[in-house]
Design a protein that fits this description.
By secondary structure, this protein is α/β, with parallel strands linked by helices. Helices cover about 40% and strands about 20% of the residues.
Length: about 350
Amino acid sequence: MRHACLALLLTFWAALASAFEIEESRSYPAPGSPELRILSTADADVFEPIIKAFQALHPISITYDVASSAQVMQALYDEEARYDLAISSAMDLQTKLANDGLAQRYSSDATATLPPWAKWRDQIFAFTQEPAVLVLNADAFKDLPLPKNRAGLIALLRDHPQVFDGRIGTYDVRVSGLGYLFATQDSRNTESFWRLTEVMGRLNTRLYCCSGEMIDAVARGELALAYNVLGSYAQARLADTPGIVIVEMDDFVSVMLRTALIPQTAQAPQAAGLMIDFLASMRNRPDLVAATGLPPVVNGAGADESVIRPIRLGPGLLVFLDRLRRDTFLRSWVSSIEQN
């Protein structure tokens, strides 16, 4: 039975249902037209300040639909859903959409100010840079040292199984596009990735779809730690969530670029372009950075790669989307993380 389920999960491009699934939908009416339809992986609460600030400049009605990165891909790649803007944390899936001819080109004075590494072929535009971090429960670590790097984390988990058994969280990379991106980048950056995955598997690690659920579980004390959580979401929770600790590892920190593109099916590409311009200029709006917790793209970011490892836009991201390469990676990951 387990092998049958795994075979189904490994069929990445197979439709998950008769139609893609929307987790949340919000409408922001305005007297202007046309309507701007956005499909996004960013939580509605996080993105709402951006929408309201944008509408103060451009009175355009907006529909904001939230879906997982895999569902965004299904909507645009398989079902040709009509959205004007696609926003995703899964840089590799956005790159595939553009590479396969499903994104429109766009250029403006605002996008011209983006660093070269924050855009690709005038089709994909980054507007945030967000690190992958460890989120720890302070009570669980009151008698333990905080891990500083992956080697230290492996040693800590091995030495204290009674603390961590069933209390580690990470992405289920079979269903999370961002989780898959972070995992494949880890495997490129360090040989310790597979050792860490095997140790986590022996400790009955819990698997999640998204960062928010992992942060909640750490805050409640259900998890002692969560691995590869989006640092922006964790930082946003610090002010009102006592007892969580954020650790950026000193061996390397993967940095994801949250990106936007205009699908070929867009009905209001001009309105979508206005939103891209607004997002590209977020570094000039510290009020929005503070309200959303999303760190903006800034010139010079990513220059020092001794520890900070920005994930680069471009065809290199397509390597692990090759069907055979993906299936092989997932088989190895499943055998490591699910050992019972």
